[in-house]
Design brief:
By secondary structure, the chain is of the alpha/beta class. It has 3 domains: about 90 residues, Arc Repressor Mutant, subunit A (Orthogonal Bundle); about 90 residues, Periplasmic binding protein-like II (D-Maltodextrin-Binding Protein, domain 2), CATH 3.40.190.10; about 90 residues, 3-Layer(aba) Sandwich (D-Maltodextrin-Binding Protein, domain 2). The protein is built from 12 helices and 12 strands. The strands form 4 sheets. The protein has a 5-stranded mixed beta sheet. It has a 3-stranded antiparallel beta sheet with strand order 10-7-11. A two-stranded antiparallel sheet has the order 1-2. Helix 1 packs across helix 2, helix 1 packs across helix 3 and helix 2 crosses helix 3. The radius of gyration is 31 Å and the shape is rod-shaped.
Length: about 290
């Protein structure tokens, strides 16, 4: 049966009466509800007027319940008890649920995973659930705590914080390019491994004066696979500087050209509103890595 919400008195009045019925005292009810004695008494009187019958009667320094008051108190005790149990179960489940993060597979593998040891050393009891996806995921519908997105940081309906540069670079193995500077004319004659359907990559190459369609390139289905092929010396690759930090530091790849554009970049994306304690700790750590 559908609930007739219009016939139900205000929750404030029902809470005031239920607390009074449990404690048999307006002052004690006021303390547990963090309001004044007068406010509780006023709410109970308003409830009596709405229902058209007395519910409490003064008895010394406290109150006693009428027959109707006892009946209502029993029903409210069951109802508020069920609400409390439901909220406790929800809070317990939320506390145990891992922090859910949506991000691209390449960013997860190349930037986040190498850093996670530090997070787990600091927060060993917080679980993480990574959800690699090349598509933009609806955080609310998919119950994600946060996303790491590549772009200009101007997505509607969410809050964004800068995480790290996504400045594009051209890189290749030392065996392929040696230790010398490589000119754009020389790049045009070299082999490439290019990710399919990546407009930013193609725009960057055109800014360099290179035509992506005219290059001798192997067409790779994803950015991550293109990077793997470049590590094998199969050609030059376009990649975000954030994703090849370890490759450059360990000598697997060498950068031969860097973009000077500040955007796009990688941003932390969250929904407006309160966040779970575990999510707050992960966000605090994540921002410390930028």
């Amino acid at each position: 049966m559908a609930t007739d919400w219009r016939s139900i008195p205000s929750l404030t009045a029902l809470r005031a009466f239920a607390a009074t019925a449990e404690l048999r005292n307006f002052s004690q009810a006021a303390r547990v509800l963090n309001v004044t004695h007068a406010a509780v008494a006023q709410q109970v009187r308003a409830l009596e007027e709405q229902l058209g019958r007395p519910l409490v009667q003064r008895e010394g320094r406290g109150v006693s319940l009428t027959v109707d008051g006892e009946q209502l108190a029993l029903a409210l005790g069951e109802g508020f008890g069920a609400i409390q149990r439901g909220l406790e179960a929800l809070r317990a489940g939320e506390a145990d649920r891992p922090v859910r993060i949506t991000l691209t597979a390449t960013f997860a593998a190349q930037w986040l995973m190498p850093r996670l040891k530090d997070f787990w050393q600091q927060q060993p009891d917080i679980g993480l659930s990574l959800h690699p996806d090349s598509k933009v995921v609806d955080l609310h519908r998919e119950r994600m705590d946060l996303a790491i997105r590549y772009g200009n940081g101007d997505w509607p309906g969410v809050e964004t914080q800068y995480l790290t540069s996504a400045r594009l670079v051209v890189a290749g193995t030392p065996a392929l390019i040696g230790n010398r500077d490589v000119t754009v004319a020389e790049m045009a004659e070299m082999d490439w491994v290019l990710a399919r359907n990546w407009p930013e990559q193609d725009a960057y190459l055109r800014q360099l004066g290179l035509d992506p369609e005219a290059l001798s390139s192997t067409d790779i289905s994803s950015e991550e696979l293109a990077l793997a092929a470049a590590r094998q010396g199969l050609g030059l690759v376009v990649e975000s500087v954030a994703l090849i930090e370890s490759d450059v530091a360990e000598g697997r790849l060498r950068i031969v050209h860097e973009s000077r554009e500040k955007l796009p970049a990688y941003f932390i994306v969250t929904l407006p509103g309160p966040r779970r304690a575990a999510a707050r700790e992960f966000l605090k750590w994540l921002k410390s890595q930028s």
